[in-house]
Each structure stands twice: as structure tokens, then as C-alpha cells.
Design a protein that fits this description.
This protein is α/β, with parallel strands linked by helices. The chain is 23% helix and 20% strand. Helix 1 crosses helix 3 (130-137) and helix 4 (145-164) packs across helix 5. It is globular and about 60 Å long. The protein starts with a helix and ends with a helix. Keywords: Signal.
Length: 386
């Protein structure tokens, strides 16, 4: 397997994390002190990684454009606790605690916009790196997943003890970050007093195993925009390219369990998640890095200068359950006759060809960003009313 292919796979390989530490005997690592502000990517009221430009060009079907500005809430009613996906470019099996460009970039894509609804807390953690995941693909050992989870747990407990003060909280993660949150939900939240403070958990880009009643432990999948204490989860694939048999996304291993799928756009529209609903996507105007295609012009003759682009009505989604797989099926509603772009980018490319078993994992969050933020707002109001 070529080095470029390994790099592409490693970028999104949160599913390949092993559940145990490396087999090598090592001295117990020193716990991080989350009382130190430098161990946090984002904290409320601070000019940090989350203080990124979120300006957006809205491109209508007729090619006309308008600009949307962004401002974080000054008195947010709830908190958001975010754990980022596999992005670290550090050379070891686990990352260090230095904030690099990779961590800064991902919070701009996945987290900052939630600042309109919540106070943001995003810890650094010694995650399993891209380098470690490449080694796994070559038959070597992975990084220490237990170390990564221990950091997330410690950051969560510090947040509860020193920052939460009884407020409602939304947990947000993607890929490796969602895996960390699923373990946190299982070990530190489900059945504990703090469970009543969970507004919702967004475990995106990860197979959330649910039983026949749609529950992960005692936490149900969300079925309405006003429901709280529930989970929003999905993995995304193009409707024209559903998950192949080799895909790890969209299915779970435990017997009798399925990967959960919740369409946030459908909840806001008062529909079932299986009904096709337009998605409020916020795409990066510059694309998603070297493993995805460069976006084509968003409309004929349009020059975009903002960080993000929204294309109302261009994409829609519905949850599909077929065979072993459950996933968010994303349709592109192109009209070749209009001046707006007719496709989206987000596939992982190797030698110019998409890795079909990864689907649209790179843009899982971008695809429904507007819906996710609006849903958190609705759930926060419902939580406050209770």
C-alpha cells in the first residue's frame, strides 16, 4: 500500500483505534492538569482556536450570492464539551499537548459555529495520531487509546468540578472524538447524577451501537427537536455510492446491535429521520485538505472570499437501513441548467479516486452544520423549560 494511500486512510481512521493500550510495558504517564488554560483548545471568553472566521457566502440556485456574518452568543444558556477527531500530525503513537495547526483547523470547521448556542469547552488530549494509525495499516501497533480516553475523562471531570456549576451540557465529537465520548457516556454519565444535565450528545462520524429500542445504554436516540438527554449520531455516504461490504462505517460488531442514525434536519422539520430533508450544510470554501478534491467554482463567475459556503437546497439527507448498514444517505440535488455548482467535494481521494468505504466522512459535520447548531438551540430551550 502506498504512503499516500496510508496518509489518506489515516486522516479519517478513528474507527481503527484499538480499545486497549499498546502491548509494550511503559511507565504510567503523568496526568494532565486541566486547571492550566494551555491544556484547552477553547475556553469561554478567550481569544483562542475557536475565535476563527465563520463568515459564509450563501449561494442560491440562481447563482446569486449573499454574505452571512457570525457572532457568538454573549449569554449562552448551556455549555458544549467537544472532543476533536484524528488530526494530530505529531510523530509518536500519541500526540503531545501542544496546540498545532491541525487542532486549530478542525475546531474552525466543526465547533466554532456552536458558539451561537453554548459556551465552548474543548480540551487538548493525547490522541492516537495519524502516524500511529498508519502503522496499524502496515501491521504495527497502534497508539495508546487508554491514554487518550484518560485525558478526555480527566478534562470532563475538571470541567464538571470547576466550570459547569449545574448548567446543561451538549457533548460533541467526531470520529475518534466520538469514540472517546461514547466511552465517557458509558462509564461516567449513564446512570450517574450528571446524566440529568446532558442536553444531548452528538456522536458524529462514528458507529453508535444501539439496541432494538434505539438506545445506547439508557440514552435514546433523539426523535424530536424538543427531546433532551438523547443522542444524535450518523455516518454519511452519497446516495449514489452507499457503503460497500468492506466499509467499517455504518455497522457495529456486537450481535443484535445496529449503528444509530439520526437526521438532525428531519427533527427540525418535524419529520422522521428516514424522510428526505434538505440539509443546511456549511462547506469549507477552500476544501478539506490534500485528500479531498478542490471545490469547483460555486457558481459561474462567482469569486468567494469568505471561509465557508452555503448552498441552500443543494444537498438533502435521510437515514437508510439496508442489510448490516445504517447511515445518512446524502443526495445532491443538482440542476445542470442553473449556474450553481452541481456537485460537492468531501470524498477521500487516493490517486484521484474516492475511497468508497469511507463515504463522506471528511465532511460529516459540515453536511448538517446549520441543522446541528439549530437543533442544539431547540434542545437548549427545551432543557431550560424543564
Amino acid at each position: 500500500m502506498s504512503k499516500s494511500m496510508l496518509a489518506a486512510i489515516g486522516l479519517t481512521a478513528g474507527l481503527l483505534l484499538v480499545s486497549s493500550a499498546c502491548a509494550q510495558t511503559q511507565a504510567a504517564p503523568t496526568a494532565n492538569d486541566y486547571g492550566k488554560s494551555e491544556n484547552w483548545l477553547c475556553l469561554p471568553g478567550r481569544d483562542d482556536a475557536c475565535a476563527t472566521d465563520q463568515s459564509t457566502t450563501i449561494v442560491a440556485a440562481d447563482g446569486k450570492a449573499a454574505q452571512e456574518t457570525f457572532a457568538a452568543a454573549t449569554q449562552a444558556p448551556v455549555d458544549c464539551f467537544y472532543v476533536y477527531p484524528t488530526v494530530s500530525t505529531d510523530p509518536g503513537g500519541n500526540s503531545d499537548m501542544t496546540i498545532d495547526a491541525a487542532e486549530r483547523s478542525v475546531v474552525g470547521q466543526q465547533l466554532t459555529r456552536f458558539g451561537t448556542q453554548c459556551r465552548i469547552f474543548a480540551p487538548m488530549y493525547r490522541q492516537v495520531t495519524l502516524a500511529a494509525l498508519r502503522k496499524v495499516m502496515m501491521g504495527g501497533q497502534a497508539g495508546d487509546a487508554a491514554l487518550a480516553y484518560g485525558d478526555v475523562r480527566d478534562a470532563w471531570n475538571h470541567y464538571l468540578a470547576h466550570e459547569n456549576k449545574g448548567r446543561g451540557v451538549v457533548l460533541i465529537g467526531h470520529s475518534q472524538g466520538s469514540r472517546m465520548l461514547l466511552q465517557l457516556l458509558k462509564e461516567e454519565i449513564d446512570g450517574k447524577p450528571v446524566q440529568k444535565q446532558v442536553v444531548s450528545a452528538l456522536t458524529l462520524g462514528m458507529n453508535t451501537p444501539v439496541d432494538a429500542t434505539g438506545r445506547y445504554g439508557t440514552l435514546p436516540l433523539c426523535t424530536s427537536a424538543s427531546q433532551t438527554g438523547c443522542i444524535v449520531t450518523y455516518v454519511s455516504f452519497r446516495a449514489s455510492s452507499p457503503p460497500p461490504a468492506s466499509s467499517r462505517f455504518g455497522r457495529t460488531d456486537p450481535q443484535g446491535l445496529r449503528a444509530g442514525c439520526v437526521n438532525p434536519a428531519a427533527l427540525l422539520a418535524g419529520k422522521a429521520s428516514t424522510e428526505a430533508t434538505p440539509l443546511s450544510a456549511y462547506f469549507s470554501a477552500k476544501g478539506m485538505g490534500s485528500t479531498a478534491a478542490t471545490p469547483k467554482p460555486w457558481a459561474k463567475g462567482l469569486a468567494v472570499t469568505t471561509s465557508f459556503v452555503a448552498t441552500p437546497g443543494l444537498v438533502s439527507g435521510r437515514c437508510v437501513s439496508e442489510g448490516e448498514f445504517s447511515y445518512l444517505s446524502v443526495a445532491v440535488n443538482a440542476d445542470p441548467a442553473d449556474p450553481r455548482v452541481d456537485d460537492i467535494t468531501g470524498d477521500i481521494l487516493v490517486f484521484g479516486q474516492p475511497l468508497k468505504d469511507w463515504g463522506l466522512h471528511l465532511i460529516d459535520v459540515n453536511l448538517a452544520m446549520g441543522d446541528l447548531v439549530a437543533l442544539v438551540g431547540e434542545q437548549s430551550r427545551a432543557y431550560a423549560a424543564k
